[in-house]
Amino acid sequence: MGYIAVVTVVFAAVAVVLAVNESADASFAPVLAVAVSLPASLLIILVPELPQPWDGIAASATLVGAALVQAWLLWLLFRGHRTA
């Protein structure tokens, strides 16, 4: 649950920074989103058929989706085997 909260906060902060600040100072903000969603973001960046995550809203949604899938997989991995 902690990882998904971190991903949500970082992506929300990046969206706010990009919406509020139109100067070149905001250009580093998407790097934080890519860093927080590693290693899923590397798969998106390295697959040539997928759009680059910094090329717009639809491409950023791919990165958000990958981060959420990664959070779900981590949750499945760390919750352990449940017995009935």
UniProtKB/TrEMBL annotation:
Residues spanning the membrane: 29-47, 59-78
Assigned keywords, A-Z: Membrane, Transmembrane, Transmembrane helix
Matches recorded under InterPro entries: DUF7942 (IPR057702)
Source superkingdom: Bacteria
Protein name, UniProt field: Uncharacterized protein
